[in-house]
Design brief:
The chain has 383 residues and is an alpha/beta fold. It has helices at 21-25, 42-49, 75-95, 108-120, 134-137, 144-164, 221-231, 250-256, 270-278, 294-301, 314-317, 332-344, 346-363, 366-381; strands at 2-6, 30-37, 56-59, 62-68, 100-104, 123-127, 167-170, 187-189, 208-212, 239-243, 262-265, 282-285, 306-309, 325-327. It folds into two domains: 2-194 and 366-381, Glycogen Phosphorylase B (Rossmann fold, 3-Layer(aba) Sandwich), CATH 3.40.50.2000; 196-363, 3-Layer(aba) Sandwich (Rossmann fold), CATH 3.40.50. It has 14 helices and 14 strands.
């Protein structure tokens, strides 16, 4: 089977193929990947990925086709990305036809997928990786009216793209339960790719609670800061580490209020982030909306206990009191109570961590991902 995979970007492909889903998918299928990246020049791409890696670099049976998009957002960038998806996808099809188009998301990438489906007659699968529309409701850079309009448009795009698609890939069974008009669209349900074999379980070397993610408000960093400040005097030897892309730290610094036990770390490489998770006491994700919570699976693979908001698909992956603790969304007091339990009860931490590790090995391995993905393709293509 041969596929065209359309990614939103803008993160470039990892240097280490063992962190790459297409390296593992190459055991069963082949294809091409369309990916806008945050670099602006050919030299930046080649410096990072190697000589002759732009505009196409190869990972086993897959070819990455890169677009130098930069980090700016706006209409012109989106139009350039759409034209890149359609033109490159059509050129690839003429060179060597693909059986199926898989898009990450249900807006711009999905629109490009629909156009390419019409142009090539290939089957179309949409990967829905969040709660449609909800992320816009927590975008503090937009006005209240704009947030509601953006959420409405996102849901409208979802319906249009889903009706044009041959199948949807969901992260949890109830992901689209609020949209009765989509009930007849075939679905496959399985986790996003996580390189669990690359996570090295180890004993916590330092006493810290870690958050790793972006954007900070949507992921509930403000809730975590308030919760940690409640319990910080009880645990003077425990730190809270906030790791991610925080372009404006003013509000975070105000929330921290000079608490010396809270640290803001700049983004690290994926390998460094996995190591930081593996050495933490607890992994926290007090998110306001979430499709899966990739960091939670990374924590499980690292044999670390986690605490997370019971929103979206999180309860499908974190079973309360079995492989983690769930908290009420936007409830700093409840989060503080759960953190206190974990920090004072080493037996609870160990039990949750062991259950989480076993759960991750059984359900979220690279082999399991490939099997689910290939089954999805076979069902879509009727093979």
């Amino acid at each position: 089977m041969r596929i065209l995979y359309i990614q939103r970007g803008l993160a470039p492909p990892p240097k280490d193929a063992r962190l790459e889903q297409f390296s593992f998918l190459s055991d069963a299928i082949e294809g091409d990947v369309l990916l806008p990246v945050w670099w602006k020049t050919k030299g930046e791409a080649q410096e990072e990925l190697g000589r002759d890696s732009y505009p196409v670099c190869t990972v086993r049976n897959f070819r990455y086709h890169l677009l130098l998009a930069g980090i700016e957002s706006g209409f012109r960038q989106r139009l350039a990305m759409l034209l890149f998806y359609v033109r490159t996808g059509r050129s690839i099809y003429r060179e060597k036809p693909f059986d199926c188009i898989v898009t990450v998301g249900h807006s711009l990438t999905a629109f490009a997928g629909v156009i390419l489906k019409w142009l090539t007659s290939a089957k179309l699968i949409l990967e829905i990786n969040g709660e449609p529309g909800r992320a816009y409701l927590f975008d503090t850079s937009l006005s209240a009216i704009t947030r509601r309009a953006a959420a409405f448009l996102s849901v409208a795009c979802l319906h249009f793209a889903a009706w044009c698609a041959d199948r949807l890939r969901l992260l949890y069974p109830q992901q689209l339960s609020g949209y009765p008009l989509l009930r007849r669209v075939p679905v496959s349900v399985f986790h996003a790719f996580v390189p669990t074999s690359m996570v090295r379980p180890t004993e916590a070397r330092e006493r810290y609670v870690i958050f790793a993610g972006y954007p900070w408000y949507l992921k509930g960093v403000d809730i975590l800061i308030r919760a940690f400040r409640i319990i910080a005097p009880e645990f003077p030897d425990v730190r809270l580490v906030l790791q991610g892309h925080f372009p404006d730290r003013t509000e975070l610094e105000r929330l921290i209020g000079g608490c010396s036990q809270i640290e803001i770390h700049m983004p690290r490489t994926y390998r460094e982030t996995l190591d930081a998770i593996a050495h933490a006491l607890i992994v926290a994700l007090p998110t306001r909306t979430e499709g899966m919570g990739r960091v939670l699976v990374e924590a499980m693979a690292a044999r670390r206990p986690c605490v997370a908001s019971a929103v979206g698909g999180v309860p499908y992956y974190v079973r309360d009191e079995y492989n983690g603790l769930l908290v009420r969304t936007e409830d700093a007091g409840d989060l503080a109570d759960k953190l206190r339990r974990l920090l004072t009860d080493s037996e609870l931490r160990e039990r949750l961590a062991e259950n989480a590790f076993e759960f991750a090995q059984r359900n979220f391995s690279e082999k399991a991902y490939v099997e689910h993905f290939v089954t999805m393709l076979s069902q879509t293509l009727g093979r």
